[in-house]
Amino acid sequence: MLSFDDNSFLTDTNRGTPMGDLLRRYWIPVLLSEELPEPGCPPVRAQVLGERLVAVRDVSGRLALLQEGCPHRRVSLFFARNEGPDAPDGAPGLRCVYHGWKYDLSGNCIDMPNEPKTSRFKDHIQITAYPAQERGGVIWVYMGPAESQPALPELEWAMVPDAQRFVSKRLQFTNFAQAMEGGIDSSHVSFLHSDAGLWNPDRAQRDTGSLSTGLLQDTAPRFFIEPTDYGFLIGARRQSGPSNYYWRITQWLMPWYTFIPRDADGPIGAHAWVPIDNESCFAFSVSYHPDRPLTSQETNSFRHGGSIHAVVDEETFVPLQRASNNYRIDRVLQSTVSWSGIPGIAMEDVAMQESMGTVVDRTDEHLGSSDAAIVAARRRLIGEARALAGGADSPSGLDPASQRVRSGSAVLPADAESWVDATAEIRAADSRYYANS
Amino acid sequence: MLSFDDNSFLTDTNRGTPMGDLLRRYWIPVLLSEELPEPGCPPVRAQVLGERLVAVRDVSGRLALLQEGCPHRRVSLFFARNEGPDAPDGAPGLRCVYHGWKYDLSGNCIDMPNEPKTSRFKDHIQITAYPAQERGGVIWVYMGPAESQPALPELEWAMVPDAQRFVSKRLQFTNFAQAMEGGIDSSHVSFLHSDAGLWNPDRAQRDTGSLSTGLLQDTAPRFFIEPTDYGFLIGARRQSGPSNYYWRITQWLMPWYTFIPRDADGPIGAHAWVPIDNESCFAFSVSYHPDRPLTSQETNSFRHGGSIHAVVDEETFVPLQRASNNYRIDRVLQSTVSWSGIPGIAMEDVAMQESMGTVVDRTDEHLGSSDAAIVAARRRLIGEARALAGGADSPSGLDPASQRVRSGSAVLPADAESWVDATAEIRAADSRYYANS
Amino acid sequence: MLSFDDNSFLTDTNRGTPMGDLLRRYWIPVLLSEELPEPGCPPVRAQVLGERLVAVRDVSGRLALLQEGCPHRRVSLFFARNEGPDAPDGAPGLRCVYHGWKYDLSGNCIDMPNEPKTSRFKDHIQITAYPAQERGGVIWVYMGPAESQPALPELEWAMVPDAQRFVSKRLQFTNFAQAMEGGIDSSHVSFLHSDAGLWNPDRAQRDTGSLSTGLLQDTAPRFFIEPTDYGFLIGARRQSGPSNYYWRITQWLMPWYTFIPRDADGPIGAHAWVPIDNESCFAFSVSYHPDRPLTSQETNSFRHGGSIHAVVDEETFVPLQRASNNYRIDRVLQSTVSWSGIPGIAMEDVAMQESMGTVVDRTDEHLGSSDAAIVAARRRLIGEARALAGGADSPSGLDPASQRVRSGSAVLPADAESWVDATAEIRAADSRYYANS
User: Fold this and answer.
1) pTM, entire model
2) What does the alpha-carbon distance between residue C106 and residue C127 come to, in Å, rounded to a whole number?
3) In Å, how far from its chain's centre is CA C298?
4) How do residues A41-98 score in pLDDT, each as one tens digit?
5) Residues belonging to chain B with any Cβ–Cβ distance to chain A shorter than 8 Å
6) Cα angle, residue C151 at apex, residues C433 and C41 outer, rounded to 5°
7) What backbone phi and psi angles, to 5 degrees, belong to B403?
8) C41-51: per-residue pLDDT in tens?
9) What was the ipTM of the complex prediction?
10) How many CA atoms lie within 13 A of C284 on its CB side?
């Protein structure tokens, strides 16, 4: 439960708010690389933390996000021309189609052909321009103070070769914090993503899917939070036979990254939850394998909504299963072989989170011991935003070296001294991807 | 005409308002029985007086309306599982699919499988649960103080055998009071529901439909309001030949029931106008015959928008004729054989009422003598709400015995002493339906 | 750039605002004649300057705009019957279908059949009725004080025979001032309406369309504003060879009329930008030839979105190219033969203007020397509205004789003494259309 004020503090990420200022200190995933497929391609609209922008890859391959409205008369630069060597001035840049004003990717107005050649007016025109970079199939933007710009993130999924990774993006009609809380809410896995057959052991039909049996033997895991310099570890401990514990370890990295524990040797799942504005966000969903290329069967499944991915409208990134069609819940399925009746793990989560309202009323929730990680993430974000507003130097989690982590699971003896120490190795990203650093 | 304050007072039915408190003292029709077709069927969403609820028929057949948001993290219980004997705990109840919290129909949290077995957390969790019952093809809910719960209504249409009744439901985009005022506005019948042929006696084409000729000989009836313990009678008196009056008697029962006078020996029409929120309501429309089963011809007609019924979208209950298609007005028809050009009596009313805006500005209307019943109903509702807020014991119309009434029409001698006494018999519901009380 | 207050002052045209009062002193184009095709036809809805009205052509052919809401219970008179000689009272007028109240086109209630014949209630009922007239394929309304009603406009396009004129109407989702500013923004023509082939002289594909070569040799014309009694002239001067200037002269007439310069001997283009409410407007687009009937090829082209016209939804007048489909921008076309990639001149303008937002933030624009006409029009409108609010007698541009003007273009010697004097003849409307005045 949060006070009304704390709930607003946590969820308001517009420019000038403490949370908005905090999040602007990090590189932000905003687009799939394929949305800007090649140098000189058309610009695309991107709203980030409430700011209306256009993303551009100029003819030289340079990336940036620029303010959407041309400062002259405020028309959208979405319609602009991405010009190159064959333009009259031969320079890379974005030219507004209304009166021909042209900007480079640093935000300088470099041409103003509707004013007399002698005019110096253009020298006084500057637009907001945020630096952008590409890594791991994603375009990242930095919207904070120039002097504080950190190194680009080195999350393992962003470092592996492209063939070992699948990234998808979907629009969710909730605040980013609400979506992220779903990503670190480990206890719902035993319910929402189980199926009716598993839940009720007497039923004949079963499909264990990717869920380990450990999840089903103990639906009330005990949660342990281990703070780290980059965020925290969530250890979910379940009984596993008389003398062992089954541990599932979720990673949470500042300010919005989560890694889901994988079972056996399959791909690892990861997310980034990025505010579009205060009432919607993009979920970047990543499946990657640290050791081998994804198989075509895996990729094909992800493309069709398998695992943590969803099938979305190509233009808007809104999933085809949505509130207006009740996420295609199938009540017959729900009463027989599926727990929720909603097809797909991702969409089960979305249905839950969107049904809370766009910004859930956290003054009226009733958290239990299983919600420890949610409480910890809120405290960490609010605390770091307050510290930064109070003059603190720099928030945590900006050092790329600290981001070289994974999630995982393990069966440990009940009398093991420390689950943290005992799982250090399985939580480390593969060092070969950081050879040069 | 109402003052701005009185208009707000009349139309605001949210929890904690005087009008909201008044209406919560009555049983409220909320669903057609067929929306919850059998024990254990999936829950359905229902918004009533501004409160977001889910309606449930549990495996034991018990009915209730529960708050929509699970108190844990506020996800919608619309997605919940309606569990029974084959559930792990074997108990009837609604289980949230997110983390498995389960509620019985009294609102108790009876299972919390994601918390340790030793936890007593669930004993502190209680959700809003309103008792519901079924009668007359309709599910009714009581949302008032438990100690004030009245007996279930005994309106004649709710007491006759099912074969003698047809009930439909449609969503109207206006405040309930506005819809109800249409139901007691007797003088519009001679116009809106007439047809061009009737209005203009020189035209060749005529279709008297179900309208008695009495309505057409005198379009300016004189209205008499006779207060009763349950509401009031509306007597509309028209000349009928030199020495007789034609009386049409509409019944209005607290707080939103109307009975339309029938002609000859056909089915009787009745309505209930129930607030969804302050800007929309459900119109329950009932055609019933007190003496015989409805014929298949009658039922078939009702199903296709005949009489007071409308054809609606199956999911939303919004009529297919709607504002966005101008209610399918046919201007050629309007200029020839139909007065309004809008197909269907119900939709003629809807077109008028929705065109006033969702909450009509009653500070800017000009009521005449024909609006006497509308004035009386407003005064009655406002007066009873004020009295209740001021500490009065109980509003009127709660005694089921008082609800055994009908509408009707009669031709009386002009010198009859009392239209009320002279019509006592035709206004009485059939006593055989109350044999046991 | 305007202050926040001035921007509100300029764009708020509701009743009782200074700008609203100013605009109500002029005849206002509201409908195409074909929307009220014949005497006694059904009424149509029309919102003008924020007021909800219905437009009526009664059986006698008289035109008026009446308030939409019947004063009795506020239902819409859109559904009303347009009655004539075969009505019971034999009088022309609009009868509300709810209770039969009937109004003549001066706003008098002339029948109230649901009240007793002896009632005088109707004598106290009066509705808002604005006089309307027809000229030039358009229906015009006057919504100002009766004693200030001016003569009907005599714009040349409204005076020529019907065969010489094509008028279309489209709904634009911006304030009227923003749309009008597009109409007098002469410098964008060299960019937005050029094509990529023209802009880049090295490309092979070219299509000069209707653009004169003068526009392309000099993209930074110098603007001269010449105030007149009816508005002002905009002279755009471009170099044209070593010793000549190419002049394009746009006419702006109070309060919202523009005439586009024509090239060679084709039809002249003209617009009227009329507020529906503060966030939308109707653009009336006119192509007319002062000397000859339009050819069927011309008319056919206009009908399919050629020149300044757009293809619109028949019911709503919203263009089929719209924000939700990005105005059907074709990025391949944009990178090859078209400057904007948006099909059609009109839709290029709409895309720009709607992308600014419904009411552009004029506190955050950066106007250059090419925006002189925009600055002048704002000053003129704001100045005249202030003067009128301050008690001035009458705004400018109301004398029809002053409206007999045209736009045009000319090549003048660089040493000509006065571009205004030198173009007097080509700017005059043809006197034969004013023979009777």
Assistant:
1) 0.93
2) 8
3) 21
4) 999 999 999 999 999 999 999 999 999 999 999 999 999 999 988 787 889 999 999 9
5) 42, 69, 71-76, 78-79, 81, 86-88, 97-100, 112-117, 119, 121, 124-125
6) 90
7) -90, 5
8) 999 999 999 99
9) 0.93
10) 27
